[in-house]
Design goal:
This protein has helices spanning about 5-10, 20-25, 25-40, 45-60, 100-105, 120, 165-185, 210, 215-220, 245-260, 285-305, 350-365, 370-375, 400-415, 465-490, 495-510, 520-530, 540, 550-555, 560-615, 620-650, 660-685, 695-700; strands at about 65-70, 80-85, 105, 125-130, 140, 145-155, 195-210, 265-270, 275-280, 285, 310-315, 325-335, 395-400, 450, 455. Among the domains are: about 5-165, Ubiquitin-like (UB roll) (Roll); about 575-700, Four Helix Bundle (Hemerythrin (Met), subunit A) (Up-down Bundle). It is built from 23 helices and 15 strands. The protein is globular, with a radius of gyration of 28 Å. Strand 5 and strand 6 form a beta hairpin. The strands form two sheets. Strands 7, 8, 9, 10, 11, 12, 13, 14 and 15 form a nine-stranded mixed sheet that branches. By secondary structure, it is α+β, with helices and mostly antiparallel strands. The two termini are about 20 Å apart. It binds adenosine-5'-diphosphate and magnesium ion (MG). Magnesium ion binds near residues 201, 328 and 456. Adenosine-5'-diphosphate (ADP) binds near residues 197, 199 and 332.
Length: about 700
């Protein structure tokens, strides 16, 4: 780690950012590139050649020997293939370092090894990566030396998206177009571009690396598959915001420095609810940059942890019985001239505009709750959603008392004349409360909460990319904006039409608003009465991707084609089945080779003791009782293990796709729970010296 005097000095030092481009590129080239970045103008090859050359020179100064097209295939993690800058040696055996515009703009990794759903069967395996110049290139320094990373989108030969980036960029275009259309109706002629802003809060666990290496379940699956609760869990709430231990503090310091160098605005850090759990949040950024940065954050956490003899666990549920990890996706919509459409503001026009935007979002989320739920579905998140530690699997919106009151007034009378706090704000036609000053109580149990000038989508899993939720948010809100504009553009009396529309949307979609306790059973019942979907698992969430409603939505805004949606659904099913299969196999392995042998040893030592004590003429009732109990649990374990083995074998006969995923969900997952139960009981009985792996207590409290 290099020493530095202040943050400003290192911030962005490894990023080919605007300042660097302005400094290094010829004026004309810089202007051309800016046009591409800001207006989407196509870049010609001659310009790209100049940019590539300067980028290479800059990267080499930073020590880079290689470049990579950095992309986000549908594996959930990033992918990269490294090429060095060297060209073929000349006749004197000398090499030059070269990098052409073509190499910058386009790459050609073999697409056949990445998940493509049905697309692989229908189309050629050929795939291309294309430079996303709206997200800056950067030099990453690690054990491999320094590498120039070029953010790219990844598409098939026929243009189908094989990644997260392509649809994300398409969704940003959709919301840009439709938000501008709406803004023009309100008389805004100055804003040129509207971009979603995103700030993801990242939760994670840190455990000691040496202990981690003794847990095959963590190594293979990222979570513990066995483990009895330690005497202390999180009940005292003493970890949340607690004092950060020195070892962890040193880790965080280095994470921050690495992130700052890469231009990631690491801002907030604290201990989270569970022991050994922490959180990191950057300052929000443009949606696609935020998505890239979140991948960089996850990678950096892992990398730096290794240097500190730690292991970073990003899994949604590393430990049963204590809180898991998630990601809060803070989302708002901002114009290029600094107007946040979700800021209630202080001027009358903006307030009406804000209410319409709000009404559109309520409509969008209510109409497409199933899609939003699906966007947060991943294998690990099944352990959290609805388990009283994270939002329920039911989508609802928290507005806060004050805003909800305004909405109620608008619905019942068509006018909002007062706010609960009594503060009034003239809108010209109606009065509205100053919402920014009167932040109502927070509600941690809501999956989708309005927090002053943004919405916070709290369902996302800690390991998952935030691309999917943002694709959905951008597109569904674009649709609601488009539908509002369709009505308003035809209206004779705009003022009247806006108010009618706000009232209509609020009335039709008020069922999505819920300010109460989202963890309560009463809410589950109430939501059912309201007809809100309660989609409990990943496998049940996947069909939302391919409904006529979803296809209509995504095709209308050119975000996904039907084929792309079908391929994504297929990949989700595949991912689920594979992940659970790995977990089941890891459990079988650990139970057979580690746990049962350890327990057998323990029973032998008990039996020896019983014999020895009895032979010595004393009573060995305690030892005998323990032996009986242990033997009983051992036989329960063996029975459950055999059942899991048999069921897992049978999975080979189940057709792939939805059916197989359901088989794993409905047959294998319960069988895994059945195996875990006796093993966790055994862990409470068996001599700690003999237990074959570190306990929950060792992992969580001895970091
Ligand atoms: P908390 O929810 O823990 O109180 P903060 O209010 O500090 O956290 O914000 C959490 C995240 O939300 C941060 O990443 C922050 O940058 C981001 N954020 C703040 N304002 C906005 C906004 N207008 N749009 C999107 N994200 C935002
Ligand atoms: Mg938050």
């Amino acid at each position: 780690m290099s020493e530095f005097t202040n943050v400003a000095e290192i911030f962005g030092s490894n990023v080919f950012n605007d300042a660097v481009m302005q400094e290094r590129l010829p004026k004309k080239v810089y202007k051309e590139l800016k046009k591409t970045i800001e207006e989407g103008k196509e870049l010609d090859l001659a310009t790209a050649d100049v940019i590539a050359h300067e980028m290479k020179e800059w990267a080499i100064e930073k020590g880079a020997t290689h470049y990579t097209h950095w992309f986000q295939p549908l594996t959930g993690v990033t992918a990269e293939k490294h090429d060095s800058f060297i060209s073929a040696p000349d006749k004197n055996g000398k090499v030059l370092m070269s990098f052409s515009g073509k190499e910058l703009i386009k790459g050609e990794p073999d697409a056949s090894s990445f998940p493509s759903g049905g697309l692989r069967a229908t189309f050629e395996a050929r795939g291309y990566t294309a430079w996303d110049c709206t997200s800056p290139a950067f030099v990453r320094q690690d054990a491999a030396g320094a590498t120039l990373c070029i953010p790219t989108a990844f598409c098939s030969y026929t243009g189908e998206a094989l990644d997260q980036k392509t649809p994300l960029l398409r969704s940003m275009e959709a919301i840009n177009t439709e938000a501008l259309r709406l803004l023009r109706l309100f008389g805004n002629t100055t804003s040129k571009k509207v971009t979603p802003s995103v700030g993801p809060e990242q939760e994670y666990f840190l455990v000691d690396k040496a202990k981690y290496l003794q847990r095959k379940d963590l190594i293979y699956t990222g979570r513990t598959l066995f483990g009895a609760m330690p005497p202390k869990g999180q009940e005292l709430d003493d970890h949340y915001f607690g004092n950060i231990r020195q070892r962890i503090a040193a880790f965080m310091k280095e994470v921050n420095e690495e992130l700052w160098k890469l231009g990631v605005t690491a801002k907030t850090q604290h201990n989270e609810v569970a022991p050994a759990q922490h959180e990191l949040a950057p300052i929000y950024a443009e949606c696609n940059v935020a998505v890239d940065h979140n991948q960089i954050v996850m990678k950096t956490l892992k990398m730096v942890a290794c240097r500190h003899g730690l292991q970073c666990l990003l899994h949604e549920k590393p430990f049963a019985g204590v809180n898991g990890s998630g990601k809060h996706n803070n989302w708002s919509i901002t114009t290029d001239d600094g107007i946040n459409l979700l800021d209630p503001g202080t001027t009358p026009h903006e307030n009406i505009q804000f209410l319409l935007v709000l009404a559109c979002i309520l409509k969008a989320v209510d109409t497409h709750a199933d899609l939003l739920r699906e966007s947060a579905a991943d294998v690990g998140n099944d352990h959290r959603l609805g388990a009283n530690e994270a939002p329920p699997a039911i989508i609802s919106i928290f507005l806060g008392e004050q805003l909800e009151d305004v909405v109620e007034q608008l619905i019942s009378t068509g006018e909002a004349t007062h706010s609960l706090e009594g503060g009034k704000l003239m809108t010209g036609v109606k009065t509205l409360p100053d919402l920014t000053k009167d932040a109502t109580d927070r509600n941690r149990t809501s999956p989708f909460a309005f927090t002053g000038n943004k919405f916070e989508f709290r369902m996302v899993g800690s390991k998952d990319s935030i691309a999917a939720p943002n694709i959905v948010l951008n597109t569904i809100v674009a649709e609601a904006f488009a539908e509002a504009s369709d009505v308003l553009e035809k209206a004779d009396d705009f003022e009247m039409a806006v108010h009618d529309l706000i009232k209509k949307y609020l009335t039709e979609h008020q069922r999505i608003i819920f300010n109460g306790n989202g963890y309560s059973d009463a809410w589950v019942e109430e939501a059912e009465r309201r007809g809100l979907p309660n989609i409990k698992s990943m496998v049940d969430a996947i069909p939302a991707l391919t409904t006529d409603k979803a296809i209509g939505l995504f095709e209308k805004f050119h975000v996904f084609t039907k084929a792309e949606l079908e391929s994504r659904a297929e990949i989700q099913y595949e991912t689920y089945a594979k992940a659970i299969n790995i977990e089941a196999k890891a459990m079988i392995d650990i139970a057979s080779k580690q746990i049962i042998p350890a327990v057998i040893k323990y029973t032998k030592s008990l039996a020896d003791t019983v014999n020895a004590v009895t032979a010595a003429g004393a009573e060995a009732s305690v030892q005998s009782e323990l032996l009986a109990e242990t033997s009983g649990l051992l036989s329960d374990t063996k029975v459950a293990l055999q059942k899991l083995i048999d069921l897992d074998k049978k999975s080979a006969e189940v057709p792939e796709g939805a059916e197989l995923a359901h088989y794993f969900h409905e047959e294998i997952v319960p069988a895994m729970a059945e195996l875990r139960a006796p093993v966790d009981n055994l862990e409470m009985i068996v001599d700690k010296e003999m237990w074959p792996m570190p306990s929950y207590g060792d992992l969580m409290f001895e970091v």
